[in-house]
Amino acid sequence: MDRTKKTVVEILGIILAFCLLVIIVYYAGSGISKTFLKAGEVTHAVWTKHYMGLVRVLGIVTCILTLAWYFFARFFFKITNPFGVGKRTIWVIIGVVNLLACIVVPMLYVHNDTVVKLGAPLYVLFLLLFGVIGYYSCSLLATPASYKYTPIGAEKLWRGMLRKRRTKE
Amino acid sequence: MRWTSYIGVLFLLAGVVCVSGCGSDESGDAAIPSFFVQQEASSEKTDVDVYWDATYSMQGYTTIPEGNVYRNLPDGLEDVGNSMGNTKFFRFGEQVQPLEGREHRHFSEVGFYDETITAIHTVVDTADTNHLSIIVTDLFESDADWSNVAKKIKDKYFASHLAVAVIGIKNPFNGDIFDVGVDNAKFNYNSGNNPERYRPFYMLIMGHEGQVREFLQRWKDKNPGGNEMQYMLLSGNLMEKAPDLSNMEIQDSKNIFADEKLNVTDKRVKEFGINDGDESVELKTAFHYQPLPNGCSVDISKSKPVVHVYSLQDGEWKDSGKDGDAVFNIQENGSQTGDYQLSLKFTPDKTLNKDQINLVYAAVEPGYNGLVLPAWVKQWNMDNPAGVTPENFDGSKTINFMHLVESLKDSVLDAAKPALANMTLLIKY
Amino acid sequence: MSYYFISIGGSGAKVMEAVTHLCAAGMLPTEEKLYIMSIDPDVGNGNLARSSAALHCYNSFQLFKTGADTPLFKNKVELANPFVWNPTEHDKCLDDVMSYQAYRGTPIGDLYEVLYTKKERSTLLNEGFRGHPSIGAAVMAKKVAMDKDTAELSSDDEPWKRFKMLVNQDAKSGSVARIFLAGSVFGGTGAAGMPTIAKLLQQTFKTLYDEGKVLLGGALILPYFSFSPTRTDSLTGQVYASSENFLTNTQAALKYYSVKNKDEDIYHSMYFIGDNILAPVQKFSVGSSSQENDAHVVDLYGALAAIDFFQTDVTKLKKCSYITHADDNRFSWSDFPNLVFKDLNGNEESIPLKDRFAQYIRFIFAYVHLVKPVLKDLSAGHLKDYQYPWFIDYLEDLNIDTLEVKNFEEYTECFVRWLLQLEGKEQHTRNIELVHPMVIAGLNPASIHGELFANCVIGEDSKITIHELWYRLTESDCRDEYADGFGRFLRVLYDCCEKR
Question: Is this model's pTM higher than 0.90 or not?
Fold first, then answer.
């Protein structure tokens, strides 16, 4: 696969991964909400409708942040000499911003939307799925080659696969 | 190649999640069990049928002109009836005969009463439940077979969640009273112009509760003062608006949440979801008890909370068949009189049928002796007709009136199963 | 083995340096090994030291497994042992070599005295023949032991013993031994050696020569530089080469070759390479290590002449070849001859020099700029390896503190220096438009301007920026199963420098 195709595939992959995460978070959150929604409050059906809006918004925000890392690594970071090529700090910063978004965005959403009520387990769900699994796994699998080992743990993953492939050859 | 494989796997996963994770949008109408359904009180216009007891016992009401409400009754009834719809008059004794034109005005005359047998049960049989039926009578049934009358009223009216009101009116009386007691004795009674000795006659108002109450209100408006008039309404509703989940405040809940997946149209029924089948579900609501105007009050201390659980099987509501551990309580709530709290508790796994739509009906029924008749019933009642003699006969009371009314009360309890308050939960478990 | 290269004297050594780089770049037509030896009495010759440094480095790392189907390090070399054949002994003069004392007073001795001045006879030959080819010719003719039978040759006769053996082996196996000599015709050693050695080779392999199994080619370097001796040197009365005599010497040499070719037909192909503009040498030197002239485009032409000789079919070899360039004021890639590559089936492919060499230049520059500055620290763990994916992919498990790697890095220094000298304006009044004039930032260590990398080869916008190169390096993998170790990495780096 040439580089352009690979880039398109990776971008689509990231978007698709987050679509999948949105679906998972939606269903998981719907289930979790049953533990804290009370009978006298908004119905679960109405809650999940509003919750879907939140999940979509959060999914888009975290997807954009993940794509930001991808675009930075693919198009903006330029290497002209072998010094100062490390970008792990930036990767971490974007990751932290992502985690913060998983808390701040829902809080703002809930502030504007009187229907949605969130419990601590949902925040944990957002952090885990969008913040950690989403950003981390996407950056692990889809970081452009120049920085493919920048995400922590990428080295172990890709080096192992490379060695396996070379052994086969 | 490796990347296309990854993308392919992702697409497949997304598809699987979409298909399997899609919650079924069960929006099928979950028709509520018919036994639960209570007819909405209707106050639409209706035709009024007045059935007049034309037996000899009734003559005495027409004789004394002073303070006589009875003589103006035909016109009065016609006025009120026509304000609600078309009014038709009938006379009955053993059979029911319609009256044409202005014939009903003759009920003010002594000579119009020539029937010998009072068969109110026939009137009940004849009455059209779509009309407001009024029986003007002194409540002296031949053979004193009030149980039969009560049963017919129960089957025809209370079972269909219709209401029956009793208006008792004290009227001057001078005449013979027939069919007293089991021996069908005849007594003569003259109340003179002493209101305390006036003899009561009654109007049984039967029909849709809303129409019955409308009639009562219009009658009261047209007859604000004058002779003593008492009212009593027997109906499946024990309050103006029965406390249910559409109007009660849910104070607390545990392991249960409101939902809207099933297409429930009846506002009294609320759909809920359960979080954990092993854990106990608790639901607490509060309401303020206000007796129905003219209705029987409820002795809460004698009330009986009941819980019935049904599940929808093959399109029919059937008993869930589970022992369950549902507990429903009523207790006073706070210091304010009339404030009560309802508490429902059950374990879903033990009480509900899995993968079915369950209906949990929890209600506070009046219980045996829980429905309290108005005081005037006892006051107007004359007991022990077997020992009645012309000397101790009190014409200002009605023999076995209490018995009759209690029969009606029992009938309404049995047939309409009135509930003071209820919680009806629809749960797809 | 079919290719033999013999450099004679300082100019020949400079051509040898160019041959080294072309060889490392895989510019020879087939994958035959190249046997290289040098003839120079001035063993400490600076040119020789520099050119043989690159060659010795290459000899060390040439066994890197860069895989099959790549020109990179395709052509292996075998160095003569001893690499430099010194026809003279230390602190000997011509009288000693010719054993004058034994012939003194005899007619031979008298003839000898007539042919050579006393100064010529008594000057020590440690620094070569001082621009006196007559001295060199006599010495070489005396010392080359090629006339002995192979069985008679001893270890003292190396490297000629092995040389003879290899040529005979080629003949036996049916291949043609192509022997190429390079040297100047205006100087001392070269002028002496070019005709003498060629003649000796022809005589030694007469039968094979007549059968066409031994071919002789030569790059005869004509004057291309000039120098002025210092006042001190001229006053000490030493024997030294004089650039004023270059043209005269050249004229005489060319006349000689013209006559010789008519009578004896020694060379199958001669390549005459010179420059009408003589580049001034900054610092005059009589010889030894101080004699170190910068690389010149003539050297490159000489090396290309060798390749032309190796790649041309014997029936198409020209007796005398020369080459011109289009614009008198500049040299560009189009002024160089095409290379011909033959596959195993004998199919030939003619490719412009730039097409192959440009990639090799980028390859060396890339190594110098991206890899060399950080490799040691990466290996020692002083840098975070995740920042260098290529290190993890190819080099993490390797011990790079080896002689081969060191030699390769030394070679890159040599190459960059050679290229810089080639481009150098100090010695040219013309533009040498091969690489961007500003791309090389410095030497020792060699460094380049990364931002000029994409256009480092003039006339080729490769669009391979440093960033692009880095990307290619980290996204690709070498699928050649024969590539391994450090060679695998170099192969990948080389492939990434290909203009796509």
Answer: no
